[in-house]
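Data availability (excerpt). The following record was deposited with the supplementary files.
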Amino acid sequence: MTAGSDQLRVLLEQRTTGIASLIDMALETFEPGRVVFTLETRPDFGNPLGTLHGGICSTLLDSAMGCAVHTALPEGASYTTLELKVNFVRPVRLDGVKLRCEGTTIHLGGRVATTEGRVTDDQGRLVAHGTSTCMVFSPA
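Predicted structure:
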């Protein structure tokens, strides 16, 4: 494990505040450069059309891709998302569909990291996919 992985594990175990607790997003697995989050859809995640709001998939992707970078960082380093690109592939029902989001680090440099992510439904169908660019901050 990296120092970033250790730090992320502690943060996620304390899941009492923040976006993960707000939308009941759960960490399924993580390793250096790869993170998987899951969540179940619910009616208050809906858009005006009665399907899952795109912001929920975007949040899953941003979280999984950013945390994938976090897991690969050395001690004392941090990051922030610079850019997030999301492609929505199909609508998602609001009746407890279990979504799985996997984020993977593509490149981790001294100042910039790039990542990709995929959201699938409980039948394994692609729901959304995205890429992200993150700025890496060196340890002080």
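Summary of structural features: Residues 54-71 form the longest helix (18 residues).
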